[in-house]
Amino acid sequence: MEISSFDPPKRLLMGPGPSEIHPKVLSSLSKPTLGHLDPLFISMMDEVKFLLQYAFQTKNEFTIPISAPGSAGMEACFVNLVEQNDEVLVCSNGVFGERMAENVIRAGGKLIKLDFPWGTPVDPNIVFETLKKNPNIKILSFVHAETSTGVSSDAETLSKIAYDHDCLSIVDTVTSLGGIPLKVDDWKLDAVYSGSQKCLSCVPGLSPVSFSEKAVEKIKNRKSKIQSWFLDQSLVMSYWSGDKKRTYHHTAPVNSLYALHESLLHLYNETLEKSWSRHQKMHLKLKDGLEELSIKFVVEEKYRLPQLNTVWIPKDANDANIRKRLLEEFNLEIGGGLGEFAGKAWRIGLMGHTAYENNISFVLNALRSILQ
Amino acid sequence: MEISSFDPPKRLLMGPGPSEIHPKVLSSLSKPTLGHLDPLFISMMDEVKFLLQYAFQTKNEFTIPISAPGSAGMEACFVNLVEQNDEVLVCSNGVFGERMAENVIRAGGKLIKLDFPWGTPVDPNIVFETLKKNPNIKILSFVHAETSTGVSSDAETLSKIAYDHDCLSIVDTVTSLGGIPLKVDDWKLDAVYSGSQKCLSCVPGLSPVSFSEKAVEKIKNRKSKIQSWFLDQSLVMSYWSGDKKRTYHHTAPVNSLYALHESLLHLYNETLEKSWSRHQKMHLKLKDGLEELSIKFVVEEKYRLPQLNTVWIPKDANDANIRKRLLEEFNLEIGGGLGEFAGKAWRIGLMGHTAYENNISFVLNALRSILQ
Fold first, then answer.
1. How far apart are CA A83 and CA A104, in angstroms?
2. What is the C-alpha separation between B226 and B84, in angstroms, rounded?
3. What is the mean pLDDT of residues A292-311?
4. ipTM beyond 0.90?
5. Cis peptide leading into A39, omega within 30 of 0?
6. SS3 label, residue A66
7. How many other C-beta atoms can be found within 10 angstroms of the C-beta atom of residue A87?
8. Is the confidence at residue A247, as pLDDT, over 80?
9. A160 confidence band (pLDDT: 50, 70, 90)
10. Model pTM?
11. Residue A252 has pLDDT above 90, yes or no
């Protein structure tokens, strides 16, 4: 078999992630690799922690990137916080809510599930009633920004309900972090996980997580061992802890962490507030353009994620064919539908470094030229 | 807090991994990110599979890189193959054997453990006797190349014993892959896992694995769900399978996979045989130089790993201080001891792209100038 070095073309990434990556973030990946216990690398890890605390708006000491993609971050939250037969309420309104339910079962928890129609948010009233009726529920989990549908749920209200019912909250912030307001401490979220390749505009492969003091207490007081060794946060804590002596757990993905450091630094310098408002402004521009093309949004206006625009595929439009043409003729990627929405919806991402006007003009022109 | 872009110095990496990385591998990381379902990326994934099959010397269809470090690869093998109360024999002669035992317990298996002194290999006779006495043992697991001690165990003989006793074998090939002979098919190994940052000389963060048909059968016929969703290989298979329609499981670490592709291509072009003999030749050069400095090896000659040289720290030498000076004055990293060997041994790596003469001269000169 004849194989040569791989030379990917430059695509414009306007799907559900990976998103566009700043050239400085991309080039940071190729900086010389350091040993994972090198003091210089450890200083950089401390900065990554600080920058992640900023991004999550938290003082949580245990705020780190898991050395694996978002689905491992999700699993880290569940396997560390759920013990055998713990009752866990999962609110599902898309693919990632379903995945949470699957995690509860595999972690040995007792699953109680609330289903909300795809394209709609989690209803806090129903969650409130369910927690009231089920005083043994120990954890409430939901998705802040559903990547499969483009819906935002009210994380602030939902986590307050959890707090008032003495529940821990596990919140999927994969697509929300950096793109819409997310305030881990103010909103009293107990465990959150995210992904590097969405609004942080870093390469895929890392999952930032943050655990509140209450969550860390729960982990420390577990009666049973955490079923995963790799994701056992009580062990990972010793590697990422603030003191000078680091205990080896696994070899950190050194170069990917360079890129995360650089991308978090961009967010820190821009400030969260400006990033949130940029995403909102760009969303409105895209919306105007899509409406001109008579393309309709799946989600009611007030629940829409600015960074992930889910729209119905126009009648008579051939989904696969159009996305193939966008890719081949325009080097442009938009997302197809997932799960219930496969073949019915497109997902146009405006995440992080993608959320700029020139990209919006580009996708609108490309769609116009193909659809008309 | 004032934070700027991170600019690591160029260190010479002569520890237990990460190892030196070829400039072309490093620069491949910064190539434009593709979507993880992009047809061009999927073609590259097929090449990665082919190249990994070559590196492992296997025709196993299920040969892929896990999207996380070696310890996740280890866990993937155990959680997929071990079911509740399965008897698993773990041979431990170092840190990574201990970690295997921990994995068996957390996967719900019944652990039977054989301990061999640190710095010595697994004794096939004892393994044979143990399997004979315990006909219910379903899995034999051991480490081919113990990264904590620099010892090589006889994987061919051990897996033959497993095969003859109708056991599956799980073999840690983290440090062996690419550095010493490893023949997954000829030796009938059932599940192997490795790491990207050792003799493959890629960045850390990926774990190549390969499962035999027998292992895949066992996974398909499990009575219980695999406890990890992220590492559930029955799901991962659908993403990495050969047909055109890929089922989304998680977002692949796209750019890290570019680097793996490039590093595997280097190995393929060099050929395994030449890589193995280069490691052996360089080991002998290092050995001669160390003997001139009166530095003694921990491991008996015939069990030594050429790619990981474990030596006793000379009397009166200050471990921490010397390694600090090597790092600061020479930009040179060698490995400290791990576990039982902490403070007693050094680990000098000659892995992959590190195993060249100029690096050996450099480390010997540096040690000479500091020790004398």
1. 9
2. 10
3. 98
4. yes
5. no
6. strand
7. 17
8. no
9. very high
10. 0.98
11. yes
Domain positions in chain A are 12-18+272-371, 23-268
Q: What is the pLDDT of residues A43-90, one digit of tens each?
A: 999 999 999 999 999 999 999 999 999 999 999 999 999 999 999 999
User: A353 pLDDT exceeds 80?
Assistant: yes
* Cβ neighbours of B74 in A, within 8 Å: 230
Check if the beta carbon of residue B33 is closer than 8 Å to that of residue B255.
yes
When scoring A43, A255, A268, A353 by the number of chain B Cβ atoms within 10 A, the one with the most, hence best to mutate, is A255
Question: What is the nearest CA distance from A9 to chain B, expressed in angstroms?
Answer: 7
Query: Where does A303-356 have alpha helices with state H?
Result: 319-330
pLDDT given for residue B219 in this prediction: 96
State the pLDDT confidence band at A182, using cuts at 50, 70 and 90.
Answer: very high
CB pair distance less than 8 Å for B18 and A4: no
pLDDT score recorded for residue A227: 97
Q: In terms of C-beta density within 10 A (0-12 exposed, 13-18 middle, 19 or more buried), how is residue A163 classed?
A: middle
Which of A3, A251, A338 comes nearest B17 by C-beta?
A: A251
- Residues of chain B with pLDDT below 70 are 242-245
Could you tell me the end-to-end alpha-carbon distance of chain B, in angstroms, rounded to an integer? 43
For the segment(s) B12-18+272-371, the CATH number from 3.30.43.10, 3.90.1150.10, 3.30.70.3270, 1.10.1140.10 is 3.90.1150.10
- Rounded to 5 degrees, what are φ and ψ at B193? -135, 155
- The residue among A1 and A351 whose pLDDT is bigger is A351
H/E/C letters for each residue in chain B?
CCCCCCCCCCCEEECCCCCCCCHHHHHHCCCCCCCCCCHHHHHHHHHHHHHHHHHHCCCCCEEEEECCCHHHHHHHHHHHHCCCCCEEEEEECCHHHHHHHHHHHHCCCEEEEEECCCCCCCCHHHHHHHHHHCCCEEEEEEECEECCCCEECCHHHHHHHHHHCCCEEEEECCCCCCCCCCCCCCCCCCEEECCCCCCCCCCCCCEEEEECHHHHHHHHCCCCCCCCCCCCHHHHHHHHCCCCCCCCCCCCCHHHHHHHHHHHHHHHHHCHHHHHHHHHHHHHHHHHHHHHCCCCECCCHHHEECCEEEEECCCCCCHHHHHHHHHHHHCEEEECCCHHHCCCEEEEECCHHHCCHHHHHHHHHHHHHHHC
Pair B142, B153: CB distance under 8 Å:
yes
C-alpha–C-alpha distance, residues B17 and B308, integer Å: 9
pLDDT given for residue A242 in this prediction: 59
As beta bridge partners, residue A159 has: none
CB proximity under 8 Å: A 210-269 to B: 225-230, 248-256, 258-259, 261-262, 265, 268
SS3 A284: helix
B:125-184 residues touching chain A, CB 8 A cutoff: none
How far CA A244 is from CA of A62, A211, A313, B190, B237, in Å, comes to 16, 21, 54, 41, 41
CB A254 within 8 A of CB A33: yes
Residue A286: what are its φ and ψ, rounded to 5°? -65, -45
Pairing of strands A110-115, B137-143: unpaired
Contact (CB, 8 A) for B285 and B360: yes
Q: Give the dihedral of Cα atoms B90, B93, B95, B97; nearest 10 deg.
A: -10
Q: Can you give the pLDDT at residue A30?
A: 98
Distance from CA of B144 to the nearest CA of A (A): 18
Overall fold of domain B23-268: Aspartate Aminotransferase; domain 2 (3.40.640)
